[in-house]
Amino acid sequence: xxxxxxxxxxxxxxxxxxxxxxxxxxxxxxxxxxxxxxxxxxxxxxxxxxxxxxxxxxxxxxxxxxxxxxxxxxxxxxxxxxxxxxxxxxxxxxxxxxxxxxxxxxxxxxxxxxxxxxxxxxxxxxxxxxxxxxxxxxxxxxxxxxxxxxxxxxxxxxxxxxxxxxxxxxxxxxxxxxxxxxxxxxxxxxxxxxxxxxxxxxxxxxxxxxxxxxxxxxxxxxxxxxxxxxxxxxxxxxxxxxxxxxxxxxxxxxxxxxxxxxxxxxxxxxxxxxxxxxxxxxxxxxxxxxxxxxxxxxxxxxxxxxxxxxxxxxxxxxxxxxxxxxxxxxxxxxxxxxxxxxxxxxxxxxxxxxxxxxxxxxxxxxxxxxxxxxxxxxxxxxxxxxxxxxxxxxxxxxxxxxxxxxxxxxxxxxxxxxxxxxxxxxxxxxxxxxxxxxxxxxxxxxxxxxxxxxxxxxxxxxxxxxxxxxxxxxxxxxxxxxxxxxxxxxxxxxxxxxxxxxxxxxxxxxxxxxxxxxxxxxxxxxxxxxxxxxxxxxxxxxxxxxxxxxxxxxxxxxxxxxxxxxxxxxxxxxxxxxxxxxxxxxxxxxxxxxxxxxxxxxxxxxxxxxxxxxxxxxxxxxxxxxxxxxxxxxxxxxxxxxxxxxxxxxxxxxxxxxxxxxxxxxxxxxxxxxxxxxxx
Amino acid sequence: xxxxxxxxxxxxxxxxxxxxxxxxxxxxxxxxxxxxxxxxxxxxxxxxxxxxxxxxxxxxxxxxxxxxxxxxxxxxxxxxxxxxxxxxxxxxxxxxxxxxxxxxxxxxxxxxxxxxxxxxxxxxxxxxxxxxxxxxxxxxxxxxxxxxxxxxxxxxxxxxxxxxxxxxxxxxxxxxxxxxxxxxxxxxxxxxxxxxxxxxxxxxxxxxxxxxxxxxxxxxxxxxxxxxxxxxxxxxxxxxxxxxxxxxxxxxxxxxxxxxxxxxxxxxxxxxxxxxxxxxxxxxxxxxxxxxxxxxxxxxxxxxxxxxxxxxx
Lengths: 680, 313
Known about the structure:
Radius of gyration of chain B: 20 Å
Radius of gyration of chain A: 37 Å
Helix content of chain A: 40-55%
CATH superfamily of the largest domain in chain B: P-loop containing nucleotide triphosphate hydrolases
Distance between the termini of chain A: 23 Å
Shape of chain A: elongated
Oligomer: heterodimer
Structural class of chain B: alpha/beta
Number of helices of chain A: 25
Largest sheet of chain B: 5 strands, parallel
Distance between the termini of chain B: 41 Å
Shape of chain B: globular
CATH topology of the largest domain in chain B: Rossmann fold
Helix content of chain B: 40-55%
Number of strands of chain A: 19
CATH architecture of the largest domain in chain B: 3-Layer(aba) Sandwich
Low-confidence stretches of chain A: 1-8
Mean pLDDT of chain B: 84
Mean pLDDT of chain A: 83
Strand order of the largest sheet of chain A: 8-11-7-1-17-16
Order of helices and strands of chain B: HHEHEHEEEHEEEHEHHHEHHEH
Low-confidence stretches of chain B: none
Number of helices of chain B: 12
Number of domains of chain A: 3
Largest interface: A-B, 28 and 28 residues
Strand content of chain A: 5-15%
Number of domains of chain B: 2
């Protein structure tokens, strides 16, 4: 009965097991959105199994069953369609192990293994989503894990709320440390890129345009990027966020090049240095400086007012006056950009570019070609021809609609211009460029976003997927490339206001998205607030990278040296530790027991070291008897010591008032303890 | 305590043990309860020797005792007496009931209705009885020794907490161990019939011992321990109702008495532990299935018996 330690004390209790299960569910829930969802039932199954075992209904599974179950799980993973070497596979494997481990949790250290894996999985979930909500959820999961850590250490169960409260306190106490790590820890660019593509579909504008694509985007109110202007905001109809230039037309689809190119090839073909770029521009008008935070798209395209003359961020300039990110955007990325919208571009047009800008498929759309020739003949100048074409859109019964009729595989331009006359930006831009090229005017399609919604509170523009747009650029003598948006002739509202205004009558705005907040006007102020919170989150947390860190540290502490940063961080650590020790009362002197009790406890500790430990309820005399039996060679000393202690404690006559007498007794007690110590 | 008194106590214990075989601890506790001026409740299954113990105690103490078998139709007047019209004097005279005795044996207390049970309340607590607005003092000393069947038995009215609290000890005898049982079955070598018991403890000695009990010294360290125990009954996760101050007083007093009959002048933790379950078992209520004596034992085991007398930093 008086053995040292209790084996049952090291085991996880039933309540602890339930806590563990809850924590596992909490940790795995967000990952289930991105990874095979059947791992959740695996967890429930193994937890139910374990609980049945705990209740004694089942036997603890043997090694063969465990092996079988493990092979089953891995087999299921291998047929679940995940790439072998990918983040998804690694995370799923981790989740599977995490779920299975429940089956084996018997002792506290097993539970600790599960918990530590849980902390890792919280980190993994941030690889998939970094929104403010997932961050808050992460904190919640942290608290639950901390609570579980408390719960599995308890032999008796405490109320859930009390445990959660102390867990929250633990997490709260760690907050300053977390901030210091966030601000100061060095941010290395990744040594390798995580293969994310499998589940992370590309979003946003694609690198080709078939009539219909942009209509799909117009059904989404997801954020594409946010912009904060330094100084005055440009007018709404000047907000053309240029992203992709589509040069090649195969009769149906517009693409950047005649064939599909790898990103490295695109980069080699398009990238130009800043000085080369300057040579192709005639700077004019005013400059606009703005900060953009691009959302995750898994594509490298960046959207900016054209032409960009200066960027701060990980991107390069191209021959067609765009900027492209060096890597696919897998997390919100911040850039500071300077544009000069009125600058002339390519006043002298290189031949290669001209060729590309005049390309047409050898045959098809003959009606349109004929019309172009006729109209060109009638026009006295190119400008007049352009105006004639644009006027056709306004004068004839062309409609702007998000529900255009299907145009089929061949002669799509003809069908649109002469028959259906219903379409949206892609149809108008496509047909316009066709008509230009047919008349020998260099022209190309530009896709990107147009407009944006100003958040009055945060003074920033949000550009959403439904702002996606396609327009054209044509090249004219002495003017270089100029932007023409044929859609503006048909549906001025699309450009002056936004898509919603343009299709107000049709009612097709965000069709099929019942729960989109953008649809409901009365929710606007709430939505604005949410947006600006999310903007702040992206601006200050997610886009805190190496560059921002450097500039912040420079602003705070002047020139950065290793010594200085080390000193500052060290100082923070000291302050935090001081705060903790004050808060947790570590510095406070704990109430002390009277000296005789302290000596008695030392006596107990001494005997416990030799395998004779005292039960709390054992009285000094009872323990003395027990100890004398266990250590017969010391019986006399133990007895004498216990006798004196007992007398000192319980015999009021022995407890004399004189201090001298008292200290003598204490001394005697100490001497007795020393002799026991020597003899042991 | 003088050696003579101690001897008297010891020989009365000896006498009792000859009647109740193999239950030394319970017998000693029962006597302690009486010596500490407390009422005693013996709870056990029928046929375990409850009544015998109560009977023998009364005999050994040599006090006048009356016994009432409680039944469900027992009325308060059957216990405390009633005023009867006396034709001679044409007035009511009070005829005292069986409760007017030094030891009142309430056999199978929980078979009576709550009304009859509560008639005992005043008697036990105040040492007096009120009938028709008049108060009659009970003889001194006055003890109630009650026996009861476990509440799960049919035909019982459970005693309310308030009434249980008035009993200093609750004891149960339990089955005898095999060796003793064999002895009993044989017809009891050395087992003495109850009527052969002689009075050992005189009334004077009893009163003297009762007056000595409060003089047994209690050290600060011991008080710390008792307070820790009391606190534990109120804080423990398994406890719903903790020990009342009356219960705590009973614990202290009976510990002193236990120390006294062991010839000590001060109380040791052992003394507290010896009486703890008997004092606390029927007074605390648990939250879960751990109840009564088992709960009291749990509390006892989870409290450190040494230490404290804290010096504030």
